[in-house]
Fold this protein.
Amino acid sequence: MGMSNRTPKLPAVLFATATFAAAFPAIAAVDFKGAVAPILQEKCIECHGPEKQKGKLRLDSKADAFKGGKSGVDIKPGDGAGSDLVRRLQLPKSDDDHMPPEGDPLSAAQIDALKQWIAEGANWPDGVTISPKVVASAAPAPVVPAGPPPPPPSELPKEFKPEAAEAAAIAAIAKAGVDVPVIAQNVPWRSVNLRLAGASVTDATIAPLKDIKSLVEVNLATTKVTDAGLAPLEKLTYLQNLQLQLTGVTDAGLAHVEKLENLMVLNLYGTAVTDAGLEHLKGLKHLRSLYLWQSKVTAEGAKKLQDALPGLYVNMGWETLAAAKEEKKDEKKEEKK
Ligand code: HEC
């Protein structure tokens, strides 16, 4: 008997249970596609479908579902309360036979829908099958509107031999109490952190840096260097990371930074640099990150530079604040050691 024969007027007996009446107030019979299939798909097919047949039961096609599983027929058309499928849904979650064995139990309304669907004869339209639900990870990744790609990293030459002058220059820096270590084993590239010597570091201290061409990182944060004092840095062709935060450097100093064509990271936080100074940076095509928190640069100025260097990350604030706090913490730790 087709469902259409029964609608719109259903025999009163179908509304025998209060819950069913509540869940489906005075409407037509439970619709398989609209009300039953979505529940099976959402809650059952994962274990009773094409991939797995737990308890030897498949619920994705009519023939399989009606055949039953390991323990026999689970759906008895016309007998909702007597069907093992319904019995399992109604068991307490702690019971071994409760379905689904994992995740949230079905809601009372969902159980009633299945029970009533069976009570009404378990009408499963011919040819309808239920496919496994699409898992989030299987779906194609959402298309994120892409921003401009970051500038390409600068590349260090494979063959690099430090010049003879380097050793003497490194020794001179060592006199100020600062090492110039290589950045990793088996590479010629070096970094120097003069921040730790801080206020005692002046233009004279950093003059020897011009001979240490292997430098890729120079940290001058909190030192007493001046704009003019940055001139020796012009010689550091391979410099990638320059930290000038909390120094007296201004726009004039950036005229020296302009020559550092491999620069990728520049920190100018807490300096008096202005929009005009950023003009010097427009040719730095590898520049990826620029820190400007508490400088005199405006949002428009930063935007203008980003237009010239698409993909450049400019940090004007909060993240720098967090980083600065971290740095302070690290320094305190260092001091304790
Ligand atoms: C995480 C996996 C899993 C999910 C999801 C799941 N089941 Fe099961 N189901 C099982 C396992 C395992 C068995 C076998 C239990 C046993 O043999 O004692 C089983 C057995 C059954 C059986 C008895 C089969 C038989 O004839 O022996 C029925 C009926 C059943 N499940 C219905 C459902 C329904 C309805 C849902 C959705 C509401 C569901 N299951 C969701 C794992 C699952």
About this structure: The CA atoms of residues 275 and 304 lie 9 Å apart. Confidence is low (pLDDT under 50) at residues 1-27, 136-145, 319-323.
